[in-house]
């Protein structure tokens, strides 16, 4: 207590407590999707720090067990041999997958509950930026073990980056240190993965949370009846912090059990990169883009002035995701409102928005499905038909069903 | 989404089980396509996606149940003073002992790995994961039976953070 008093006399802790630590946090489990994303980021930073102690960011060849192998690959084998090292590396991988999935579901929750509307447009845009930066960071992380899988998967990303008209070469130079894989690729990707992108993520998370605290969280609908026009919630300290800490422990518990039992990326199974490219696909969050690339004929080329051209890689890998991203950016300005939004909108009260979201999800499912075109032996024509008609059918069926069940409440 | 009930966490739990099952069946299917033996001892790209969403659903479901249990389905302003009984204290004490034992066992595992032979990652991950889960339950008991609840009603316009 005397320590607290000593600090209080110097730092005015009482004022800090009254001003910040008594802030009311509304309670709903769906709000924790954002926290799961944050927990994943913290886990990634902590396990990532451990990995940097043993990882060598270089593709130079070193002798290992009588073979000449890339230094990065050998250093990952070394990390795996350390006590708890293989678990921490696996947990690092799984945390990245879960962060991408949680960020996506968090955005989906914001979308179907209308929480992107006034005054939260800026935080919606920051959320989109965070999702994009998370996916890019995870993708770059995949390249670092420099095994056969990661080299193949990174080559697909390199091809997409290089396909951007006029600036493709510059993008490839900045991101991959030249024509991938060169000796400069791994140091460049490593620097982006462990320094620049995490710094960007930290900054975006910081601003995102600061704005959330300023604008106040949306509240569950029942709060409108209990305390209309006010914020109903539990104080940050000790209530919310104790719940957050125990949920973080819960998250770690599940993650370490899964991460230990299922090694996400066993590099000894894939082996070092070889001259013959193995038949592998990119990670699941890129499979929808990969699927679109599979059904766009490589003959699609549109010439542009000064020798540039729009290729099928650009259309599938940049243009279509770019259009979807642009719609997401414009959403809060198209679906605007004059009054300030305080309460979570029930998806059942908004059949059009909810059904369009369902249609969009089906678009992602079918595009992902197209990633297995060769294995499923499906023709490009059939997949195109599926990609167009399945999402539209899903949207219409959901809309009609919701109108029938809940009525025209929009 | 009207209140903090366990309807969505229940379906998240069901989804998690379905996705883990789908991962297993996908593995069986891949093995079948390759004459009974999978091409390599690693999850496929699709399986990794399924496990990621299965694990996320499981974490979400657990968080949902814990949140509903600890914070209630609907908040009501005021202080709610807890009344811990003897049984709760006993359970907390036993869990604290289990936590200490797991901690000791985990250190032993690491030392064994270092000095004798490698320990399976499943064993290391499970012991550490259990330590975290027991810690979570201990904290939940503290929150539910010792810390109590406080629900505030705050003005929308405040000076926080500016």
Short description:
Chain A has 410 residues and is mostly helical. Chain A contains 17 helices and six strands. The radius of gyration of chain A is 24 Å and the shape is globular.
Structure description:
The complex is a heterodimer of chains A (410) and B (162). Chain A has 17 helices and 6 strands. Chain A is mainly α and 410 residues long. Chain A folds into 2 domains: 21-345, Cytochrome Bc1 Complex, Chain C, CATH 1.20.810.10; 347-410, no CATH class. Chain A is 67% helix and 5% strand. The mean pLDDT of chain A is 93. Chain B is mainly alpha-helical and 162 residues long. Helix content of chain B is 69%, strand content 6%. Chain B contains 4 helices and 2 strands. Chain B has helices at 7-33, 45-71, 86-115, 121-147; strands at 78-80, 149-154. Chain B has a two-stranded antiparallel sheet with strand order 1-2. In chain B, helix 1 runs antiparallel to helix 2 (45-71) and helix 3 (86-115) runs antiparallel to helix 4. The model of chain B has no long low-confidence stretch (mean pLDDT 92). Chains A and B meet through helix 3, helix 5, helix 9, strand 4 and helix 11 of A and helix 2, helix 3, helix 4 and strand 2 of B.
Measured as a percent range, the helix fraction of chain B is 55-70%
The separation of the N and C termini of chain A measures 56 Å
Number of discrete helical segments of chain B: 4
Number of strands of chain B: 2
* Shape field of chain A: globular
Tell me what portion of residues of chain B adopts beta-strand conformation: 5-15%
Q: What is the mean pLDDT of chain B?
A: 92
CATH topology call of the largest domain in chain A? Cytochrome Bc1 Complex, Chain C
How many helices of chain A does DSSP assign? Answer: 17
Radius of gyration of chain A (Å): 24 Å
Distance between the termini of chain B: 30 Å
The pLDDT mean of chain A sits at 93
The dominant shape of chain B is: extended
**Widest sheet, order of strands of chain B:** 1-2
Structural class determined from secondary elements of chain B = mainly alpha
CATH superfamily of the largest domain in chain A: Cytochrome Bc1 Complex, Chain C
The radius of gyration of chain B is 22 Å
Strand order of the largest sheet of chain A: 1-4
For the record, the count of structural domains of chain A works out to 2
